[in-house]
Design brief:
The structure is a single chain. The protein is of the alpha/beta class. The protein is built from 25 helices and 29 strands.
């Protein structure tokens, strides 16, 4: 920008002295200027429309309008005039916003010395824009000349983008190509070269050609293209890359070679299909000598092509394909038919596999058989998957069966608990009433003994059905085995060697220690009985990781970290039909009177209720291994034992509110409590209990309620009774502790629960424990 040029300035300023200061600064800086100073919006608009200016200067605040509005009027005029804000009364954020909206610069009024440089810079930027516009016009004219040559060429020409991964969108196409393909030009410009041909045939037919284009080399190739009407033509392309605005583009010229290439193309496609086929394909001559085998055949069998050429395919024959099948095969194909069946074949490494085969004869133009084509499908993976599916389905059916048996066992156990409670309770009352009759006491003792046996049986059923109350603690299974160290040798025969394998870094599990001991003892006894003539019993622990593959093959297993407990014997083993039933209650292979059939059922229930899984591995005469997997926990083992109750089985004078829907059991408990001196209120269901509690004005010291009752649960009864009588303590009774009890909230910490059936002594001791918790 020359100093001698006269510059016209339109200055928007309502303070004349400020305008004069700025103009004087410009002249002092050597600028030749003439200026029009306005303050009203109408004057600014009029001068902007009627005169030509080199630059606009503007204050921000004027009476009735501001500099931002002046900038907007200038933008609407479509005149390329630099706009500079000269102000001192607005914040930095507003000034920056003005620049964002199009202002060339902003000057603080207290720094007028910056104004000359700002004007020079703004005018230089304007001159640069004008130069770019002139260059753009020249470029457009050059492009127009190129376009005429481009479209008047007799060759088919396309221009497309070149991305690192291959050809991109078509950006230009000449009239000859448009005419050949029959697509509208705007439709072609939305496509890529790959869209013009059959799927899977990009413009550059190999990675090497793409690399050459990236390096700037010319390439020559052929490809089929599809016209709009579906007809196919084969074009021979010559492609050359060129740089365009920082990116790579490709100019391609093509000529039609359809007729010359169609036959070769069909042959190439057929050959490629055979070579890439996932099936095993071999071709023999009329004498059954191999003349070709595809790569899949050599991959599966392990033989190279050179090793099998000229040989008869019978060298692959395995041992399980019947000889008659081969005779049927040759009878079929030599008559020109198609044979289908399965072969048992042998690979080069000796591995056997099953293949599904199709063999057919090929004839020449005279109808003579010249070759035989064999297509095989390797069934190894399919049969493996079918076997895995069958095993998983069998596991699923077994799990469903065990779940159904468990639900039935739990339901039976619950009902029998109530009945046994009545039997044992009235037996105790009868024993107290009869004095001096030894024969009667003997009979009563036998009844009690049978009742206790029934209770033990019910406990086994509850364990199997996963409905017993557990007291889980963080355990080290090695410590549990150590504590059983003296007991285990006494359980097994002297001719059985006991081996314990316990690594020192074993992880921890969370389970009921008493139940885990029962699991180990039951499995040890089971192993002892399987080795009547002696053998070896191995009990092993280990840290294991069960992955996704293991979980897919074992239903109900969640991948993760586990502690394994394995009990192995060298005994008689089991047939698969026996293994499928060993965890069922009352199933036993032992002689009558030597087993209840509940030992392994109890083990199964305890492991499942502890969040683990158990699997058995056995073969006849090869022994048995039980593997138990319990989830590993990151916590230290618990050391504290649960203290025994210090309360005596005594009575009292408090008021006890008994709620039980089983009439016989309710009558028994009422009798026991009356005899113990308690004042007893009773109700047959929850609604009756709530109604009695609301009408009662005297205190209720203890609510003794069943958990699961028709209409209202024991937890709901307790909440409403305690709301009316806050002094009341609560003791729950239950015949089972399945998920429904968990949902009722009575297995929460601090909640008192009495399991059915119970003796008179247990009932009275538990009542005193709840009434006198610190006693």
């Amino acid at each position: 920008m020359t100093q001698s040029k006269l510059f016209r300035i339109l200055y928007v300023e309502d303070m004349p002295e400020d305008a004069e200061l700025c103009l004087r600064t410009l002249r002092k800086a050597g600028l030749q200027i003439t200026a029009d100073v306005v303050s009203a919006e109408e004057d600014f608009r009029r001068l902007l429309e009627s005169r030509s200016y080199d630059v606009v200067l503007s204050d921000y605040h004027m009476p009735g309008w501001n500099g931002m509005q002046a900038l907007e009027l200038l933008k609407r005029s479509a005149k390329d005039i630099p706009f500079i804000l000269v102000t001192g009364t607005i914040g930095e954020e507003t000034l920056v916003e003005c620049v964002k909206q199009g202002a060339a610069d902003y000057i603080q009024k207290d720094m007028p010395a910056r104004l000359p440089a700002a004007i020079r810079r703004a005018l230089e930027e304007k001159a640069a824009r004008e130069e770019r516009a002139r260059m753009g016009q020249a470029l457009r004219e050059s492009e127009e000349r190129y376009r005429r040559l481009f479209h008047e060429s007799t060759s088919c020409i396309t221009v497309h983008e070149m991305d690192p991964g291959g050809p991109g969108r078509i950006v230009d196409v000449n009239d000859t190509m448009v005419s050949l393909l029959g697509y509208p030009r705007d439709e072609l410009l939305k496509m890529t070269p790959a869209d013009l041909g059959p799927p899977g045939l990009p413009l550059e037919e190999s990675a090497l050609q793409a690399e050459k284009l990236q390096r700037g080399e010319r390439i020559v190739f052929e490809r089929p293209v599809l016209a709009k009407d579906g007809t196919q033509r084969i074009l021979e392309f010559q492609s050359k890359p060129f740089a365009w605005q920082g990116s790579l583009r490709v100019l391609s010229e093509a000529r039609d070679v359809t007729e010359r290439r169609s036959a070769e193309q069909r042959i190439r496609i057929l050959s490629e299909a055979v070579e890439r086929s996932p099936s095993l394909i071999i071709l023999t001559d009329a004498q059954a000598r191999i003349v070709y085998a595809n790569p899949k055949f050599t991959e599966v069998t392990g033989y190279t092509l050179e090793e099998i050429l000229g040989r008869n395919p019978r060298f692959l024959k395995g041992s399980e394909t019947p000889p008659d099948e081969y005779r049927k095969l040759w009878q079929t194909v030599t008559r020109g038919g198609v044979w289908r069946g399965e072969f048992h074949n042998r690979k080069k490494n000796g591995e056997l596999y099953w293949a599904e085969c199709m063999i057919t004869a090929l004839r020449n133009y005279a109808g003579e058989i010249t070759h035989y084509l064999g297509v095989q499908e390797d069934l190894t993976e399919r049969r493996k998957m079918e076997e895995e599916k069958r095993m998983l389905e069998e596991q699923f059916r077994q799990a469903q069966k065990m779940e159904a048996i468990g639900q039935l066992s739990g339901g039976i156990a619950h009902d029998f608990n109530n009945l046994l409670g009545v039997i044992i309770g009235f037996n105790e009352l009868l024993q107290e009433r009869i004095q001096g009759d030894e024969v009667a006491h003997k009979y009563i003792a036998q009844i009690r003994k049978a009742g206790d046996s029934a209770v033990e049986l019910i406990h086994h059923l509850l364990a199997f059905s996963r409905e017993q109350v557990l007291e889980p603690r963080v355990l080290d299974l090695n410590c549990v085995l150590s504590e059983l160290g003296e007991m285990l040798p006494r359980l097994i025969n002297e001719d059985i060697m006991l081996l314990l394998v316990a690594p020192p870094d074993l992880g921890r599990v969370k389970a009921d220690p008493g139940q885990i001991e029962q699991v180990i003892l039951n499995l040890a006894v089971n192993a002892r009985d399987a080795m009547p003539h002696g053998g070896k019993l191995t009990i092993e622990t280990a840290n294991v990781e069960l992955d996704e593959n293991y979980a897919r093959e074992h239903i109900a297993v969640v991948p993760g970290r586990y502690v394994m407990l394995a009990v192995s014997d060298t005994g008689v083993g089991m047939e698969p039909v026996i293994q499928a039933r060993i965890f069922e209650p009352f199933f036993t292979t032992k002689e009558l009177g030597k087993g209840t059939g509940l030992g392994l059922a109890t083990v199964y229930g305890i492991v499942k209720q502890s969040g683990g899984n158990i699997w058995v591995y056995s073969e006849p005469a090869k022994g048995t291994t039980f593997k138990i997997y319990l989830p590993r926990v990151d916590a230290k083992a618990d050391l504290a034992a649960v203290p025994a109750s210090r309360h005596a089985a005594t009575g009292g004078s408090e008021t006890i509110f008994l709620v039980e829907d089983a009439e016989e059991l309710r009558s028994l408990v009422r009798e026991v409590l009356d005899c113990a001196g308690y004042t007893v209120l009773q109700a047959a269901d929850g609604r009756e209990a709530v109604r009695i509690a609301e009408q009662l004005n005297s205190p209720i010291h203890l609510l003794l309620t069943d958990v699961v009752m028709p209409g209202m649960s024991g937890r709901d009864v307790a909440e409403q009774v305690v709301r009316r009588h806050p002094e009341t303590r609560v003791l729950y009774m239950s015949g089972y502790t399945d998920s429904s009890i968990v949902h009722h909230g009575v297995l929460e910490e601090g909640v008192a629960l009495l399991s059915k059936p119970f003796t008179r002594e247990r009932l009275l001791r538990k009542i005193r424990h709840v009434l006198d918790p610190s006693g």
